[in-house]
Amino acid sequence: MQTQPVSIFERAFKKLVPGGLEGSNRRETDIMSISADLSDADIATVKTWVDDCLAEKGGQVDARNRAVLLGRAYLKLSDLGKIRFLGLLADQYGVAEASVESAIEQWHNAPGNQKTEAAQKLRKTLEPSRTTLLKHFNGVPSGVKFLVDLRDELLTFCKEHPSLKPLETDLKDLLSTWFDVGLLQLEEIDWNTSASMLEKLIAYEAVHAIKSWNDLKNRLDYDRRCYAFIHPSMPDEPLIFVEVALVDGLAGNVQKILDEDAPNLDPANADTAIFYSISNAQRGLTGISFGNFLIKQVVQKLRDEFPQLKQFATLSPIPGFRKWLEAAEPETLRQLPGGEQWLSYPPPRDPVQADTEASNGQREVIIRLAASYLTARRPNSERALDPVAHFHLSNGAQIARLNWMADTSDKGLAQSAGLMVNYLYELPKIVHRSEQYTSGGVISQSSAIRKLLK
User: Domain Malonyl-CoA decarboxylase N-terminal, which positions (predicted)?
Assistant: First the structure.
């Protein structure tokens, strides 16, 4: 998910690079004139430029200026050119093995009073030289966003080019340090927030697509709340955001929440906060988790503003349920509550058709199978099979209630067979449940869910 990284980075470049630096000599012209597919001659040009950045000729300011030009050159490349560019960094700018071996020997031979200094030298030699290059972008406007988008591309390229994985790992480690949750700011998003930020909410919404400005305005109405984590180096970019509905009791239908014509509830009369959409906005931060901190901070904000709230829960999709049900072997289904009955129905068995036309008995069968799916584990793991379930269970939630015909959108029917689930966050029990799940795979279930599994 990228939001015009070229224009953003070029604007940053114009602000940063001193007048006359770009094209002021032949080598600077060469780096901006490389071909889109990056020929062998162009690779040599890039390597010389990278070497100059690492040597910090002219000091750190010039090194950062060179990094900006390097970034601009990268953005003009084709996918083939980018893969060749990144391959150069992965292959030739890793750890210097000879330096590491020498540092290890020095550490072994260092007397006691010099051991610490030798260890520090060893630690420094273990850092790939490309990391120094990447760090230069932290000091330029929009440079961090450039690296986030760069990792987004790396995650895609690594699927067919595993040799790029060490570079992707180095970049992830670097971003993990820069995006520590203590550095993030929780901001409330409302209708008065900047238009550019609101546009990004529309673009990044990953659970229930925002169809129009009126749809967005409804989601930001006075009985709703929206919060996002923001990083100081990316002030115009949400990292992750959550949409909240203030309601009376557990919500069981997302179409009702999203209905623009539905009457508003006075927030003072609400007893429940429903988290109905949580969207990670930056694919380049995949694997760097701060969603659990977002939920906890939002809960605290809501409690401060609405002390009468008694429940905090989600209304979540079950994105893998229909695919799992259709792919499950008959032997597997027969061992599950409701499985034998499901197999007794004549094929083709369509859970979506059952959603719309089923008798109460068929509904019960599908709901029981959904309960089995939500409590299933990945092979050879104690982790929940469903990714959304894993996220909330690891955060300390309980699987509380399954809801029939809760999302009748095309996406909801295709992925979840129309079902949605409430994950309940009971504040005094969050830490204990999180520890039970992460250390022992214990999945907290309400009595209603346990009954479905009998």
Answer: 93-179
Segments making up each domain of the chain, as ranges:
5-93+128-178, 182-314, 317-452
User: Among candidates 30, 27, 28, which has minimal Cα distance to 18?
Assistant: 28
Please give the CATH number for the structural domain made up of 317-452.
3.40.630.150
Phi, psi dihedral angles at 185 (to 5 degrees): -115, 130
Say which CATH topology domain 182-314 has.
Aminopeptidase (3.40.630)
| Tokens linked to 224 | 């709703």
Instruction: Let me know if 392 is a catalytic residue.
Output: yes
User: In which residue are the tokens 């998003």 written?
Assistant: 189
Q: Is the dihedral of CA 280, 206, 266, 309 positive or negative?
A: negative
d(CA 230, CA 228): 6
Tokens of 307: 């002390």
Kindly report the CA angle at 434 between 338 and 394, in degrees rounded to 5? 65
Strands (E), 207-363: 224-231, 234-247, 272-280, 311-314, 316-317
Rounded Cα–Cα distance for residues 390 and 437 (Å): 9
Tell me how far apart the alpha carbons of residues 397 and 315 are, in angstroms, rounded to a whole number. Answer: 12
The per-residue pLDDT for 356 is 54
Q: Are the folds of 182-314 and 317-452 the same?
A: yes
- The SS3 call for residue 114 is helix
Q: Has 432 been annotated as catalytic?
A: no
- Over the stretch 126-173, which tens digit does the pLDDT of each residue have? 889 999 999 999 888 889 999 999 999 999 999 999 999 999 999 999
Which of the residues 233, 279, 392, 416 is marked catalytic? 392
The residue annotated as part of the active site, out of 277, 279, 316, 444, is: 316
CA separation for the pair 236, 281 (Å, rounded): 12
Strand partners, 244: 225, 275
Considering all CA atoms of the chain, what is the largest pairwise distance in Å, rounded to the nearest integer? 81
Question: Which CATH fold topology does 5-93+128-178 show?
Answer: Butyryl-CoA Dehydrogenase, subunit A; domain 3 (1.20.140)
